[in-house]
UniProtKB/TrEMBL annotation:
Transit peptide recorded as keyword: yes
One Pfam family this sequence matches: ECH_1
Cellular compartment(s): Mitochondrion matrix
Primary subcellular site in the record, as a coarse category: mitochondrion
Keyword Cytoplasm carried by entry: no
A GO molecular function held by the record: delta(3)-delta(2)-enoyl-CoA isomerase activity
Stated name of the protein: Enoyl-CoA delta isomerase 1, mitochondrial
InterPro entries: ClpP/crotonase-like_dom_sf, Enoyl-CoA_hyd/isom_CS, Enoyl-CoA_hydra/iso
Amino acid sequence: MLRRYISYTTNKFTNCRHVSQSMLQSTVDEKSGIATVTMNKPPVNSLNLEFLEEIITLLNKLQKDKVRGMILTSGLQKVFCAGLDIKELYKPNPDRLTKFWTTLQDTWLSLYTTSFPTVSVINGHSPAGGCMLAMSCDYRVMVGQNYRIGFNEAKLGIFAPKWFQNTIIAVIGQRKAEVSLTTGKMYTTDEALQIGLVDETCADADSALKKGTHFLNNFQNISPWAYKMTKDINRQSTIQWLIDNKQKDVDFTVEYMQSPGVQKNLELYLQSLKSLPPLKLISEIN
Ligand SMILES: CCCCCCCCCCCC/C=C/CC(=O)SCCNC(=O)CCNC(=O)[C@H](O)C(C)(C)COP(=O)(O)OP(=O)(O)OC[C@H]1O[C@@H](n2cnc3c(N)ncnc32)[C@H](O)[C@@H]1OP(=O)(O)O
């Protein structure tokens, strides 16, 4: 059984505080107060129930520690986050699926409403829920030219709920969000920059981390209270929609995911994942 542990240590030479959970590592730079959170759940950082629970726990801890900003990135070679763990959706146990979806809603609410600014450094493929993870941050920097990002849910025969779609609309606008979601297109780095899915691109992960830090330094002279109030007002309608419709969204999803048509589509998709080389898969579905 995987040993789960949390440890907090301070390195007196680097002035960094490390928080390590089994699938997430966090390092807080004592001088700037910026936390770098690295997702490390091989093979593809897929979001299952336990991973989401760790993300919420860590976000709560960072909030309590009053960090000044967070950079979210991946410790894997070529994947930022492969989205929701399809195994949570395929042939699900209804009780677990209910808990999974409720935890997904709570994770999104925690990330979308952080009291500190957030940046995702997208250093690998980022489909569907992985793209949503990045969209839920305040700023996005994408690394290199080899990865794809976008919302391929339609290719899996499923659709994104209203709170998910509204988050995308807030970033790229109604028209581009509609085209992106209905076609399931996966974008290259340059295309993602062009439509505004990401804010900046750069050649390597180190430069991306510098760009992320540079963005977060904009907040050095901004009152945390003013930042949080402004963000809450800006994002309020989507947040409020989910708060008002949480149970309805869970009930609908649990029923919808178990329907024979959706299950068939997921089965076919899982088979195609096994039979096609992944990069080919991602480019073939463009
Ligand atoms: C703060 C939280 C915010 C989160 C926002 C959530 C918003 C909620 C609303 C969501 C509603 C909308 C629904 C969203 C649905 C999804 O997200 S479904 C997931 C969609 N993802 C994909 O389609 C990705 C498919 N994977 C790939 O294309 C490739 O695996 C890859 C390019 C990502 C990586 O390629 P490579 O590194 O070569 O690895 P592989 O050999 O392909 O894979 C290794 C291994 O992992 C399995 N796997 C891959 N992806 C997933 C996944 N998403 N879930 C579960 N498992 C996955 C793959 O099958 C391999 O398994 P085996 O080794 O063969 O056993």
